[in-house]
Specification:
The protein has 299 residues and is of the alpha/beta class. The protein has twelve helices and ten strands. Strand 2, helix 1 and strand 3 form a beta-alpha-beta unit.
């Protein structure tokens, strides 16, 4: 997947250091920092990927948006994935299952809290005056869907599929789904989407107001730079509206942490049948990367 089509020669961001499960690229022409997930193994939010993401966030907060000393301050942050056909499959089911089987509540809680720290910082634009954009060029399930919703703007390619499969094994998406969705489409519709356990096409979610832009396959980056071009001409208006949105529909770190604690408590009550379903889902994902077929394997 080419992330340099519209970008002047990409360079590693000095203040971000080096990471094993993601890469960062900077476009100084447009003031765009790309954060591209590249997890080793399953394309989910492993502890290692989360730690890399959190390190990037902390570096950005410390740099105050000045990616390189000689450049103008950062204007846009793009969250994307290098895995073909996949944005992110969400929670690390292998880790979650190990915690449940061994009774490792502290690790499960640590994992949940790190998820919240990462997603809340992204939602809050790392506490610097920038616009965050989720570019979804593949399937986004569970926590992957939650992460995408954390951006100011969500752009998806046409074939991308979205959904919250957690309900299939008696869990719920506890890392921001309710917070982010209810801001966009209201509580009742958010609950129906979460409880349905279905997968949705990008165009369906565009009609429902969950997504902002849907592009043809392979044209997501074009749509991104088209948006940036339009946004730049009315930059102050857009940024003010995003601030108004966060003020009128706030999301609080404490609230998200409380929901994550409820998620941990719910996970600890999962029974043998639900654990078997999770195991089947993990095996199915390893055999075939198509999440629609994978979820079809689960009754």
């Amino acid at each position: 997947m080419d992330f340099t089509m519209n970008v002047v020669r990409s360079a590693l961001v000095p203040c971000a250091g080096s990471y094993r499960h993601l890469s960062t690229r900077y476009d100084p022409r447009q003031g765009v920092l790309w954060c591209i997930m590249d997890p080793k193994g399953s394309p989910c939010f492993s502890l290692e990927l989360l730690e890399d993401l959190r390190a990037v966030e902390l570096e950005l907060e410390q740099c105050a948006g000045h990616v390189r000393p000689d450049d103008l301050p950062l204007r846009y942050f793009v969250f994307a994935s290098r895995t073909p056909g996949v944005f992110n499959y969400g929670g690390d089911l292998d880790l979650i299952l190990r915690c449940l089987k061994t009774g490792d509540t502290s690790m499960l809680r640590r994992y949940a809290r790190l998820c919240i720290d990462v997603l809340y910082s992204y939602f809050m634009n790392f506490h610097i005056p920038i616009t965050t954009i989720s570019l979804v060029q593949g399937n986004a399930l569970g926590g992957g869907f939650e992460a995408a919703l954390g951006g100011d703007v969500v752009i998806a390619e046409k074939s991308a599929m979205f959904g919250f499969p957690e309900v299939l094994f008696n869990l719920f998406p506890g890392m921001g789904a309710y917070n982010f969705l209810s801001r966009r489409i209201g509580m009742a519709r958010a609950e129906r989407l979460i409880l349905g356990g279905k997968t949705f096409r990008a165009e369906e979610l565009l009609e429902d107001g969950v997504l902002d832009i849907v592009a043809e396959d392979g044209k997501g980056e074009n749509a991104l730079y088209d948006y940036i071009g339009k946004h730049s001409r009315k930059k102050h208006v857009y940024e003010s509206l995003f601030k108004v949105r966060r003020s009128v529909f706030p999301v609080h770190h404490k609230e998200m942490m409380e929901i994550s604690e409820l998620w941990v408590d719910t996970a600890l009550r999962i029974g043998p049948r639900d654990i078997r379903l999770m195991e089947r889902l993990i095996k199915a994902q390893r055999r075939a990367p198509d999440p629609v077929r994978t979820l079809a394997c689960v009754p």
